[in-house]
Every structure is written in structure tokens, then in C-alpha cells.
Write a structure and sequence with these properties.
The structure holds 2 protein chains of 2 kinds. Chain A folds into 3 domains: about 10-110 and about 250-315, FAD/NAD(P)-binding domain; about 130-245, FAD/NAD(P)-binding domain (3-Layer(bba) Sandwich); about 335-400, FAD/NAD-linked reductase, C-terminal dimerisation domain (Enolase-like, domain 1), CATH 3.30.390.30. Helices cover about 25% and strands about 30% of the residues of chain A. Chain A has helices at about 15-25, 55, 70-75, 135-145, 160-170, 190-205, 250-255, 300-315, 380-390, 395-400; strands at about 10, 35-40, 75-80, 85-90, 95, 100-105, 105-110, 115, 130, 150-155, 175-180, 210, 215-220, 225-230, 235, 240, 245-250, 265, 275-280, 285-290, 295, 325-330, 335-340, 345-350, 360-365, 370-375. A 5-stranded parallel beta sheet of chain A has the order 3-2-1-7-19. Chain A has a 5-stranded parallel beta sheet with strand order 9-16-10-11-12. In chain A, strands 22-23-26-25-24 form a 5-stranded antiparallel beta sheet. In chain A, a hairpin with a 4-residue loop joins β20 (about 285-290) and β21 (about 295). In chain A, α1 (about 15-25) runs parallel beside α8. Chain A is globular and about 60 Å long. Chain A starts with 7 loop residues before the first strand and ends in a 13-residue tail after the last helix. Chain B is of the alpha+beta class. Chain B has one domain (about 1-100): Ubiquitin-like (UB roll) (Roll), CATH 3.10.20.30. Chain B is about 20% helix and about 25% strand. Chain B has helices at about 25-30, 55-60, 65-70; strands at about 1-5, 15-20, 50, 80-85, 95-100. A 5-stranded mixed beta sheet of chain B has the order 2-1-5-3-4. The radius of gyration of chain B is 12 Å and the shape is globular. Classes of the chains: A alpha/beta, B alpha+beta.
Chain lengths: ~425, ~100
């Protein structure tokens, strides 16, 4: 690697992608400065637990991506609570809201995404209305639930964020209603069999899951909100959590003239169309070699793994990004683990294990090719599914759904 | 307070002290190479795989079903494999040596 002692690597966005990138960059041998900027003032934390264990256990200290000392140890400078306003490619600087500028030799954009706030009448008055993305959001939601006597919660959107938040707030004693616009919850990401499973699970625990519910307005009543749907139904809410998806933070990149297509477009080395600027994580539109198409992913795995690729590339050890995506969700005592991308499937097979506890797996195929596996309380199916997808293994479908055949690497040949 | 030793795949030996949290967190805190803990410690990613040195297995106990299922088909798994996010640091682990699997 060329001498990097006097070089500066600047990172915009200090979450899973940015923080892990910085630490990998140091391990790859970068000797110069590494400076991370984020408008979030909190020491970078794990995001997935915010809608899960954080709400119920409330331990943000144990939720840090890295302890404070680790940044000192790696000589990584954290500039938190600082908003970057522009990337100036011509003079290789970024500008900050306070009017200052920071020069860079290499720049990594890991700006992630922000919650999408749908244009619902009355949503602009924020009292009692929350998104769920940042540590501050989670703290505000928790405080609002704790402070409310009646604890009536309406969650708009039945995706993972909405359902996880519903499960956690239910545990805290809230009366939760989930309003989903589509016919099924999790409609965008899973097969109907999974949607049905999670709907039933929530109903059993006392969460009302209502589908085909298009929210048209929110109005303030005496100290609470009333959520109105287009079918005329009204739901009273001491607090509302919005979980209807995200918008990618591409503005900085776009204004700097970087290629944008459903996110910041990067090559297999996470490099943008400017050779000194890389992008990683939720904000990127990148090629997945296994599925042979461009994708944009909202996941920890993608943020961390792209961080590794970017660090290696910047240190001259280029390796192509080639990962099978994986995800997880925890709701109540159910552990859902997902691997692969099910998009384009034309067959779904369900394998139920003959055990006392709920344990099954959903296998998504396109003809003979296994695309993805959703495993419910079934880590074996998750691990084996990952292996089969990666190895493009042809699977005997009759054997796969026969739960008397144990789950082993060679069982379904 | 427990003294815990990690031996990385580069044969670097790191001995650290801890009294709470998981062994994975302790390793991440001390920049132990090969232990990433990408999922934050919820037994979902298997990026914190260690091998317990055989003489200490009585101290670390047995893996849960979820944990052993996560490990069963991993090429680096042997009878001493554990996911370090599932091991809580306590006085009981004083003196234990872990080899980082990756």
C-alpha cells in the first residue's frame, strides 16, 4: 500500500457501516487520520435492538457498536452531532453546518436511510407521533409509553420495524393496534405463509393486527391522537409509531454529482463513479453477483460486509463484494432468521419440524434454484439454507419437506 | 472479576479482565481479531465463534440448542465450539482460555 501517514479518510455516517469500516480500515493498515461524522450525537450503537430488547430492557450502554475506548485505541476520531452539508469533489472537502470544512483523500458515504413519513393529514403535528430509527426515537417511544396511563399504541405499517415494536410495547403492557395498508403484514418481504404466522402470533399475544387499512388522517383530541382509515374506522392512540419504510439518504451524493440509481450506485469494490469516494450500507445500490442483479439492502450484514470491502479496496487489496444477504428478527420468543433474496420466487415449500416448540422453515425456489430461506426457531435450516444457496445445490424437494428426514448437509441431495 | 485469555488465529495472546457482559463484548472491546459480533450478541450471525481450550469446558457449560444449531454445520466447528455472545463473563470464567475460530 502507498504511504498513508499523511492521508485523511473521512466517513459520513457513523452507524454499522461507517464504524465497522473505520475499524477495518485501521486493521488493513491505514496509517493516516480516520474521521467519522454523524449528525446523531450518541456514541454509535446497534440499531436492530432499538425496536427489540432496548424497548423492553432499556440498556443503551450495553448496546454500543464499540466501547468509547475502542475508538481511542484505533485512533479514530468521532465527530458526533455534526451535520455534513455538502461534498465538494473539486477540492476534496466536505462542508459542515457550522461553516467549517474538512479535507479528505478518501471519502466513504455511509449515510443510511431515514424513516419515510407518509403524507397523512395531521401527521405534521409531531405530538405523540414517533418514527423508529435512532436511539433518540427509541428513548422517546419508551418514555411516552411509560408516561401514558392508558398506553394505547397505534403502529402504522406492518413491516419488521412495526411488528417488532408492537411485540416490545405489548411486553411493556401497551394495548397495540397495527394498521397495515396491504392485504398481509410483511407483504413486501415474505411469503403469505410467514405473514399469516406472524399475524396469528401477534393476535395470540393480544396485539390487534388489521390489514387493508389505509390511514387517511390523524387528528388531535384531548391529549391523544385519533387515527382515521379510509374505511371510516377510527383508532385512539396515546402514541403512534410510523413504520412504513425508508427513504435513502442520497442527497449529499446526488448534489455532488455522484451516480444515483435507487441509491448511491457503487461497483463491486463499493466505489462510486468518483475514484476517491466510496459508499456502503443501506444507501447503496450495488450488484449482487450471486443473484446477478443490482440490489439495495436494508441490513446490518450488508453495511458491515461492504465496510470490509471498502476498507480493503482503499488499502489496495481489492476484493469483490460477493455475499449472500442475511437478516434476522426477534418477536416475543420467536427467532426468525432469513438468508438469501426471495425476489422472483415461483414456489414456496414449508418444512415443519416434529418438535414441541414452534419450529419451521420456508424455502423459496425459482424452479430448481433455491433463492432464500426463512427459518423460524430453526437455526439449522438457516445455516444449511445459506450453504445450499451459496453452493447452488440442487435440492430434492420431496425429501426437504419430509420432516422425518433429519436436517443434515447431505439429506436433501 | 474474571481474567480471560483469547488466542487469535495469528497466535496473538490477549488476556483481559471483565466482570459483566458477554465474552463476545469483552473481545470486541479489546479488539480481539476474528470476533466481530455483527448481530450485537443475539446468536444470529456466528461471527463470534471460539473454541474453548479443553480443560475449561466444565467452566463454560453447554451450548443451548439454538447455539449448537448455529454451529453444527460450520466447517470450523469442533467439540469445543461456542458462540462467545452466549457466554456471560463472571467469576466462574476466571482463567478460561478461548481460541478464536476464524
Amino acid at each position: 500500500m502507498a504511504d498513508t501517514k499523511n492521508k485523511t479518510c473521512v466517513v459520513i455516517g457513523a452507524s454499522h457501516g461507517g464504524v465497522n469500516f473505520a475499524s477495518y480500515l485501521r486493521r488493513e493498515g491505514w496509517e493516516g487520520q480516520i474521521i467519522l461524522f454523524d449528525k446523531d450525537p450518541m456514541i454509535p450503537y446497534h440499531r436492530p435492538p432499538l425496536s427489540k430488547a432496548y424497548l423492553t430492557e432499556g440498556d443503551l450502554e450495553g448496546n454500543l457498536l464499540k466501547p468509547k475506548e475502542s475508538y481511542e485505541h484505533d485512533n479514530i476520531t468521532l465527530k458526533l452531532g455534526q451535520t455534513v452539508t455538502s461534498i465538494n469533489r473539486a477540492d476534496k472537502t466536505i462542508s459542515l453546518q457550522d461553516g467549517s470544512a474538512q479535507a479528505f483523500d478518501k471519502l466513504v458515504i455511509s449515510t443510511g436511510a431515514r424513516p419515510f413519513i407518509p403524507p397523512i393529514k395531521g401527521i405534521e403535528d409531531p405530538k405523540g407521533i414517533f418514527a423508529m430509527r435512532t436511539g433518540e426515537d427509541a428513548i422517546n417511544i419508551k418514555n411516552a409509553v411509560d408516561a401514558s396511563k392508558t398506553k394505547r399504541v397505534v403502529i402504522i405499517g406492518g413491516g419488521y420495524i412495526g411488528l417488532e415494536t408492537a411485540a416490545s410495547l405489548n411486553k411493556l403492557g401497551a394495548k397495540v393496534v397495527v394498521l397495515e395498508r396491504e392485504e398481509h403484514v410483511l407483504a413486501r418481504v415474505t411469503a403469505p405463509v410467514m405473514s399469516d404466522f406472524f399475524t396469528d402470533l401477534h393476535q395470540e399475544k393480544g396485539v390487534k393486527v388489521l390489514t387493508n387499512k389505509n390511514v387517511v388522517s390523524i387528528s388531535k383530541k384531548n391529549g391523544y391522537n385519533q387515527v382515521v382509515c379510509d374505511d371510516g374506522m377510527c383508532y385512539d392512540a396515546d402514541l403512534i409509531v410510523i413504520g412504513v419504510g425508508i427513504r435513502v439518504n442520497t442527497e449529499l451524493a446526488k448534489n455532488a454529482g455522484l451516480d444515483i440509481e435507487n441509491g448511491i450506485k457503487v461497483n463491486l469494490f463499493t466505489q462510486t463513479n468518483d475514484e476517491n469516494i466510496y459508499a456502503i450500507g443501506d444507501c447503496t445500490y450495488h450488484y449482487n453477483s450471486h443473484y446477478q442483479r443490482y440490489v439495495r439492502l436494508e441490513s446490518v450484514q450488508n453495511a458491515v460486509d461492504q465496510g470490509k470491502i471498502a476498507a480493503a479496496s482503499i488499502c489496495g487489496k481489492e476484493q469483490e463484494y460477493n455475499a449472500i444477504p442475511w437478516f434476522w428478527s426477534d418477536q416475543y420468543d420467536i427467532k426468525l432468521q432469513m438468508v438469501g433474496l426471495s425476489w422472483g420466487y415461483n414456489e414456496v415449500l414449508v418444512r415443519k419440524e416434529e418438535v414441541e416448540q414452534t419450529s419451521f422453515s420456508v424455502w423459496y425456489f425459482k424452479d430448481e434454484e433455491l433463492l432464500a430461506v426463512d427459518a423460524v426457531n430453526n437455526a439449522k435450516a438457516y445455516v444449511l439454507g445459506a450453504r445450499f444457496i451459496k453452493g447452488k445445490q440442487k435440492i430434492n424437494k420431496t425429501k426437504l419437506v419430509d420432516s422425518s428426514i433429519p436436517m443434515k448437509p447431505t439429506s436433501f441431495l | 472479576m474474571a481474567k480471560i485469555t483469547f488466542i487469535t488465529s495469528d497466535n496473538e495472546t490477549i488476556t483481559v479482565e471483565g466482570n459483566s457482559g458477554s465474552v463476545m463484548e469483552l473481545a470486541v472491546k479489546n479488539n480481539v481479531k476474528g470476533i466481530d459480533g455483527d448481530c450485537g450478541g443475539v446468536c444470529s450471525c456466528a461471527t463470534c465463534h471460539v473454541h474453548v481450550e479443553p480443560e475449561f469446558t466444565s467452566k463454560t457449560g453447554e451450548a443451548s440448542e439454538l447455539e449448537s444449531d448455529m454451529l453444527e454445520f460450520d466447517d470450523l466447528t469442533n467439540e469445543y465450539s461456542r458462540l462467545s455472545c452466549q457466554l456471560q463473563v463472571s467469576d466462574d470464567l476466571d482463567g478460561v482460555v478461548f481460541k478464536v475460530a476464524k
